[in-house]
From TrEMBL:
Origin species: Madurella mycetomatis
Subunit note: Homodimer.
Transmembrane segments: none
PROSITE patterns: TIM_1 (PS00171), TIM_2 (PS51440)
UniProt protein name: Triosephosphate isomerase
Length: 250
């Protein structure tokens, strides 16, 4: 089965009502490759605004995080059922900024992922190594540990609701994109791990995105690699060049 190209826009803690309306308007009016699944992730406060303004077929809205408990006394959190109530069917989980700045462990991220998919919300699950880990030759081991925590929680059809984003931490927001070879090497290792530990079908069908300083210029070469099935884009998703990234696989 061919994997549908996927491009996510992670706005992080950026934007205003006006700027988000303008990004969405730009997407509504753009010529987008119909063979690409697009998901934009504004800050929680603007999810509903983005959802209400978006008219473009094939473009969905995603949260940047969700909690792994039913509604209740969890100050500051957002639940899976609240996302669905707002017609939001995606969330990013395990972004390195949440792992490093907010202390989310592999196990917390895996637990949130399971809770989201069980509740019918699909997940862009992020993984990636630090510069120190890369320089110590630990890249694949770090990713495999993150994957093992995930695979310890999810199984079977859960994988159909998961997109993996490989985001080397040293490439995020630094302008220092991984080379095509560096990215492809890790993507291939992730697919091999999925095949060996989960199964051939999951390995064949799971989209593996690259993230880290993707822009309108470097996206085309990355998109050509056989194991790169799309992108998770931070900074450039706030700019008009996001459309070029969406269309990079044409
Ligand atoms: P960046 O961020 O494109 O700004 O490097 C990517 C991400 O953190 O998802």
């Amino acid at each position: 089965m061919a994997r549908k190209f996927f491009v996510g826009g992670n706005f992080k803690m950026n934007g205003t009502k006006e700027s988000i309306k303008s990004i969405v308007k730009n997407l509504n009016e753009a010529q987008l490759d119909p063979n690409v699944e697009v998901v934009i992730a504004p800050p929680a406060l603007y999810l509903q605004l983005a959802r209400d303004q978006l008219t473009k077929a094939g473009v969905e809205v995603s949260a940047q995080n969700v909690y792994d408990k039913p509604n209740g006394a969890f100050t500051g959190e957002i639940s899976v059922s609240q996302l669905k109530d707002s017609n939001i069917h995606w969330t990013i989980l395990g972004h390195s900024e949440r792992r490093t700045l907010l202390g989310e462990t592999d196990e917390v991220v895996a637990s949130k992922t399971k809770f989201a998919v069980d509740g019918g919300v699909s997940v862009i699950w992020c993984c990636g190594e630090s510069l120190q880990e890369r320089e110590a030759g630990q890249t694949i081991a770090v990713i495999e540990k993150q994957l093992a925590a995930l695979a310890g929680k999810v199984s079977g059809d859960d994988w159909k609701k998961i997109v993996i984003a490989y985001e080397p931490i040293w490439a995020i927001g630094t302008g220092k994109v991984a080379t095509v070879q560096q990215a492809q090497e890790v993507h291939e290792a992730i697919r091999k791990w999925l095949k060996e530990k989960v199964g051939q079908t999951v390995a064949d069908e799971t989209r593996i995105l690259y993230g880290g300083s993707v822009n309108g210029k470097n996206c085309k070469d990355l998109a050509k690699e056989k194991d790169i099935d799309g992108f998770l884009v931070g900074g450039a998703s706030l700019k008009p060049e996001f459309v070029d990234i969406i269309n990079s696989n044409q």
